[in-house]
Design brief:
The structure is a single chain. The protein folds into two domains: 56 residues, no CATH class; 48 residues. The protein is flat and about 50 Å long. It is 84% helix and 0% strand. The chain has 107 residues and is mainly alpha-helical.
């Protein structure tokens, strides 16, 4: 149980530090105005935090796979890649099934 708490705390600290560093450099030092493209940078920092969580806590693997699938579908929709998305979803679902079934067999 303490591994989960420590891993989660480290993941949250990583995201907070990255976001603070970006905000300080962009808005305090460079004095840049807000741009909606910065949201993509924050999403990248969130993905880094989830990656740290997966490395620190093995139970975070299903969460990471689900978030990766959701993010890849969202990015695919913005590029109007509807046909490719169907193939990606099927491949990701099969990959997630294989990973989770092998992960559960080891527990």
């Amino acid at each position: 149980m303490s591994d989960v708490i420590v891993g989660t705390a480290i993941a949250i600290a990583t995201v907070v530090i990255l976001v603070l560093r970006f905000c300080i450099v962009a808005f305090a030092i460079k004095d840049l105005p807000w741009n909606n493209k910065y949201i993509e940078q924050f999403v990248k920092y969130f993905i880094i935090g989830v990656t740290v969580l997966v490395v620190a806590v093995p139970e975070g693997l299903p969460l990471a796979v689900t978030l990766a699938l959701a993010y890849s579908v969202r990015v695919g929709l913005t590029h109007l890649a509807f046909i490719v998305i169907i193939r990606i979803i099927l491949i990701m679902q099969m990959t997630m099934f294989m990973v989770l079934s092998s992960w559960r067999s080891h527990c």
